[in-house]
Amino acid sequence: MGAPASLSKPVHQLLQRDLHFKGVIITDDLAMDAIKEYAKQTNQNVAVLVVEAGNDMLLTNDYRTDIPAIKQAVANGTISVHQLNQSVTRILRLKAKLGLIK
């Protein structure tokens, strides 16, 4: 079974590299059956998978599990600090553009 498109790095590469999309990439609900099933079959945390794929913001109802899993993935090098910094920069730029921060 292949990864669902929402977890696919090539989708993000197409958006960012080929289409020059500079905005924030947000997941769909991580509690959706296809994503949960894929994570279960591969014995991985869904939030870590979607951050690895290139998502900037995650829609999750399991933050008590997902935040520590992402922290652990950064600590063990699965997710780079550089990648997180890029995501945070995109999010802060969006918030500034929307007037949410000054």
Structure description:
There is one protein chain. It contains 5 helices and 2 strands; from the N terminus they run αβααβαα. The chain is mainly alpha-helical. It has a two-stranded parallel sheet. α3 packs across α4. The relative contact order is 0.15. The mean pLDDT is 87.
- Unreliable runs, pLDDT <50, ≥5 residues? none
Total count of helical runs of at least 4 residues: 5
Secondary-structure element order, as H and E? HEHHEHH
Strand order of the largest sheet: 1-2
Number of strands: 2
Radius of gyration: 14 Å
- Assign a percent range to the helix content: 55-70%
Biggest sheet record: 2 strands, parallel
Structural class: mainly alpha
Q: What characteristic shape results from the CA principal axes?
A: globular
Strand content: 5-15%
Q: What is the average of the pLDDT values?
A: 87
N-end to C-end Cα span: 45 Å
